[in-house]
Fold these 2 entries.
Entry 1:
Amino acid sequence: MPLTPSQLDRHARHIVLPEIGGVGVARLTAAHVVLVGMGGIGCPALQYLAGAGVGRLTLIDDDTVDLSNLQRQTLFTPADIGQPKARRAADWVQGFDPAIMVTPVIERITPANAAALLTGADVILDGTDNFATRLLVSDTATALHIPLVSAALGRFQGQIGTFAGWLPDQPCYRCFVGDAFDAEDCDTCAEQGVLGAMVGMVGSFAAMEAVRAITGFGDDPGGKLHLIDGLKPLWRTLKIAKDPGCRTCGNPTSPA
Ligand SMILES: [Zn+2]
């Protein structure tokens, strides 16, 4: 579908980038991104994905806005306290660009509903705050063959990676963290604290990786994990190998 005159104006700064161009913007307007978690990572990620004109956005979060969220969850104001985050974030999208089809899902993602909620996405962006959910989202994304941008942080440390574990040479998120954390379900932000501006950096980086996955600009992100240390500050990129024994994407029954 050709871009409208309004879309050409709105996305002019992406269109002039040769690595994105009109073709990339058209891919973005045709894309469906599911964001899991509308907290500190989800808020800036959503703003940049909406800014990029991603045509369809599904926002999954069962939580409501709390006063202590405003330090880092940049979409929300005191008037939103007590309201569902997914609903208020979807309202923001509709005000920002009515051309975007946005669906709030005020539910917790569980093993029972994960496949139904994630099916049909072109990219999944996970900004949730506990291992059990992150592993569930990763296992489902791998089973559905959907690229996963997984972003997390605590205190001053952030990490972002794009995973395509169904491919024979690519790791999944479980290859990286293993099986020990499936039962972990804690709000690490409340326990450890987190620097608000760090969350913003990780969230906008995750949006960039989702745009990369849709448009194909730049280098292949597969198998790389980016670590940001806000204390130094310092940025490192690690290579993650596929774990042949991974129960999600490996082949644990075959002899090593
Ligand atoms: Zn794996």
Entry 2:
Amino acid sequence: MGERGFDATSFYEFLGEHRLMGSRCRSCGALHVPPRPLCPACYSQEMAWEQLGGEGKLAAFTTIYIVPTAMLEAGYGRDNPYCTGIVQLAEGPAISAQILGADPRQPEQVQIGTSLRVAFVDRGEGEKRRTYLAFEP
Ligand SMILES: [Zn+2]
């Protein structure tokens, strides 16, 4: 793998390859997902890529009715809401992502602490094609 910047662009490029990647601080060992070029714990810029296993637990959860453009194009909206949540990864960091396999109209059925696994959702055609991060039970 070439030298990719520790930023959101690289993060999405990796998602396009169906890989969930973070940056590990070479100085203090902190793991950042999405990757960060500067460690907020020790201010080191010495980072190394680390692939995550994709296992996690649901830490928080909400239903989205007012959707961003990309999700509108994917068919979501006021009449077809979707779920988003914070997933605590097995490696420690927490990340926000779409939660699949949950009923957005019955969020009370979704249990905090549910074990989740990463899913890579490809949306759009041609140059607009992009991979989105999601998790499913
Ligand atoms: Zn550090």
